[in-house]
Amino acid sequence: MQIRSAEFKCSNTRTEKLPPPVLPEYAFIGRSNVGKSSLINMLTNKKGLAKTSQTPGKTQLINHFLINENWYIVDLPGYGYAKVSRKSREEWERFIRYYLKNRENLQCVFVLIDSRLEPQKADLDFCFWLGEHGIPFVLTFTKADKQSKVKTLQNVNGFKKAFLEYFEEVPQYFITSSENQEGRDDVLAFINEVNGRFEIS
Ligand SMILES: Nc1nc2c(ncn2[C@@H]2O[C@H](COP(=O)(O)OP(=O)(O)OP(=O)(O)O)[C@@H](O)[C@H]2O)c(=O)[nH]1
Ligand SMILES: [Mg+2]
């Protein structure tokens, strides 16, 4: 898929104000600092589109980006950000979970996982929650440029193994780097295919 246009549409803290659910939508989520915003910029080839930062917890809202005028990427705030208060974390959780469970045009959730780490409980728990609620998701391992291919595959395999202790099969996954565009074509081809099946409910 060629990216012809990518524009920021809106930021929301309330689900009532989201764009009308008439276009296919893909949500990007993962632990804080995992590289969500960077991945969105890499996929769209637009450096400053989603705000990136060295400080975890930068993305605090539901941000909608309209791509090629016919589908949305949504940048969600990172989970597991230790520095926010318990109360605001709980509010965040309620809000995001409500969005994920109720957004009718949501086609797939991209769960971003840092390829440098061994399986993390927060990531596994979040995947289980998605599975329990029947929300389609794929895994996206990020920052693959930061280490050797062998090390990346070791961590991917570790994650798969942890995953299979609870699930019957491993979901589709991508290995990506926002630094060198690894995985870009595969992710966009996947989205293109799903877009082709979209029907307004
Ligand atoms: N080397 C390398 N660095 C990356 C990659 N992706 C992200 N980073 C760096 O990781 C840091 C966090 O990236 P962001 O894209 O802001 O992460 P985020 O998940 O959107 O973070 P929050 O919105 O704060 O939750 C930044 O310093 C990025 O430059 C990657 O693929 N390779
Ligand atoms: Mg971000």
UniProtKB/TrEMBL annotation:
- Protein name, per record: Probable GTP-binding protein EngB
Family named by the database record: Belongs to the TRAFAC class TrmE-Era-EngA-EngB-Septin-like GTPase superfamily. EngB GTPase family.
What CDD domains does this protein's entry cite? YihA_EngB
* Cofactors that this protein relies on: Mg(2+)
Q: Which GO molecular function terms does the record list?
A: GTP binding; metal ion binding
This protein's UniProt keywords:
Cell cycle, Cell division, GTP-binding, Magnesium, Metal-binding, Nucleotide-binding, Septation
List the HAMAP family hit by this protein, alphabetically.
GTPase_EngB
